[in-house]
Amino acid sequence: MFNPNVIVPRDTSESENGETERALRLLEKMLENPVELGVGRAGRVFSLPEQSICIKQIIDGSKEFSLNNVKEEIALMAEARGAGVRVPHPMMAVQAKEGDFIVMETIDGHSIKDIWAKGIPLPPNYDHDRFWDTLERLITRLNGAGIHHRDLHEGNVMMEWTTGDPVIIDFGLSCQAFDEDDPYREVDFPRVGELHLFNRDRDQVTQLRVKMLKYLQRNRTRV
Ligand SMILES: Nc1ncnc2c1ncn2[C@@H]1O[C@H](COP(=O)(O)OP(=O)(O)OP(=O)(O)O)[C@@H](O)[C@H]1O
Ligand SMILES: [Mg+2]
């Protein structure tokens, strides 16, 4: 029997709490008949047709690609959201013998990675400068709240179809740092005894922005 341990973000309101039962039922259904929305190194993301929520299932043995458990990951998403950063609305983390899951809002759009790899059209009202200026502002807000994403590659930035705006996803490697910490230095990662230096969020966004401009120049006819 499905007997999960459910954790909801601390800021979840009473009315949103009522959604938990519905989300759990959808999670059960999705496990029976999963439709894959996307996949990364640490998780697979599934949805049900016509549903506004999706499920990220953590891939077994993906520890070296993830530092946070599902509970920590939704807490960071909720913090980011509270700081005014556009991220999928986190609904709950679920730990069960069937696996570890995050239930969250489905973003109607695609990651930059999928857009590049599959030649998916850009959102109809995509405006290059607006998109990247907005993303830079989101990073300023995020970092201002002490949160550092640390994994802002093209698979972790989505373009929302209706607005043409950026959405930041995947807080599996993120941290909340205090003043005296260097948030981009992680001891004992990916393995005990090793030291990992992450790229700064701002630098990763600058690199992505340049890569997108080059992509647009190469595919001028498609824009
Ligand atoms: N809320 C969402 N709505 C729609 N699609 C999503 C959502 N979250 C993730 N995806 C899709 O699923 C893919 C994998 O999700 P995510 O980046 O969280 O996994 P990951 O394994 O942690 O990735 P990484 O390889 O960066 O570690 C994303 O690139 C995106 O295409
Ligand atoms: Mg990812």
Describe this structure in words.
The protein folds into two domains: 5-105, 2-Layer Sandwich (Phosphorylase Kinase, domain 1); 109-217, Transferase(Phosphotransferase), domain 1 (Orthogonal Bundle). The mean pLDDT is 91. It is globular and about 50 Å long. The strands form four sheets. Strands 1-5-6-4-3-2 form a six-stranded antiparallel sheet, with helices on both faces. It is of the alpha+beta class. Strand 12 (185-187) and strand 13 (195-197) form a beta hairpin. It starts with a strand and ends in a 5-residue tail after the last helix. The chain has six helices and 13 strands. Bound molecules: adenosine-5'-triphosphate and magnesium ion (MG). Magnesium ion binds at residues 40, 155-156, 170.
Q: What bound compounds does this protein have? A: adenosine-5'-triphosphate, magnesium ion
Question: Which structural class is indicated by helix and strand composition?
Answer: alpha+beta
Work out the helicity level: 25-40%
CATH class of the largest domain: Mainly Alpha
Strand content: 15-25%
Average pLDDT reading: 91
Using the CA coordinates, give the radius of gyration. Answer: 18 Å
CATH architecture of the largest domain: Orthogonal Bundle
Distance between the termini: 50 Å
Oligomer description: single chain
Sheet with most strands? 6 strands, antiparallel
Topology as a string of helices (H) and strands (E)? EHHEEEHEEEHHEEEEEEH
Overall number of domains: 2
